[in-house]
Fold these 2 entries.
Entry 1:
Amino acid sequence: MERTSDTHHRVEGGAGMAPGDVRLLEVGVHRICLARTEAGEVFAVDDTCTHEDEPLSEGWVEGDCIECPAHNSTFDLRTGEALMLPAVDPVRTYPVTVDGDDLVVELPGA
């Protein structure tokens, strides 16, 4: 991972994530979950489940959602909305773009 500006962070080779892959991106104090859907889209959300602070990067992708490994809370990767209890609060989402073989994640103020 390399910083391309104060807010844009390049994940070298990240565009090569396979469908269904989930990985952790750490930028300073930020822990971000990167997830590629079966349709090939890549999303970035806070890595922490809003129910009990479990790492979403240890969960799995179902459609356009990420499921927490601890209590099966499910979040929409597009909006961050909590779709399944026990979580009720959304996770924050971050813009992701593909640049060649890399991903660029925008983290405001990182």
Entry 2:
Amino acid sequence: MKEIEDRSICAGIVLFNPEIPSLIDNINVILHQVNEIVLIDNASLNIEQINLSLCGYPNVYIFRNEMNLGIAKALNQIFEWASQKGYAWVLTLDQDSFCSPVLVREYKKYINEGVGILSPIIHDNTDEYALLAKIVEEITSIDECITSGSLTSVTIWEKVGKFNELLFIDFVDFDFCIRVRLQGYKILRVNNTYINHQLGSKYKLIRLPFGMNFKIYNHSVERNYFYVRNNIYYIRKYWKHINKTYHILRLIHWEVRKIIFEPQKIQMIKSIIHAIKSSSSIYKEGI
């Protein structure tokens, strides 16, 4: 398979109050693999420090939103910039993700017209998912992937209707993935490359008797609202194409954990009720 030219791939990162040393490390790794990087800042409080830290970086462009417009809007801004610049593919990264130094080189081996997204092995820094060490296949066809570390076709992004800005944050990636597959394109995981990625905020470990330990992620009440609302939207919209029983039980499981073990119990319950009520309005708007 003929490799594409390097000019066809750029990278994009959404920023929201990033830890600058981690962001610089992230950029240093990816800058050697693509020609240009675009950063969309969602009203970070430390934007002046970000600008100062990156002012000497070649081919790194920063655009700032005056308010936090959400991950979906920022991702669309990245792709719109890439489209205007003539790029065919965009590598999206979280501000705290670190990719393999040969990520793009490995991806280029599997680009073809039938592929919408290429995704790596995810090594989660919280150890929620173990690094897959014994995979025989070079690539695996998968149903969904997170945006961090993914290489996505600009043409297919446009064709499937871009990222859903109604969702703001949670389920933006899974909603996009299912639309890619419903259009007949493949999502491939490239098993010989990886990113190190942390899912959300730092977790706390709940220790129960008989070794029944599990993790609770310290999401804010506002973040929990989006998680519940968008989860319900996703289930309602795509119930014919997903295991809806699994998703419903998983949602209930996570929310019961939060109510029992998180300190802001009343606020969490209120956020769940509010999310259930508002899910109907975004469902009607999004269909």
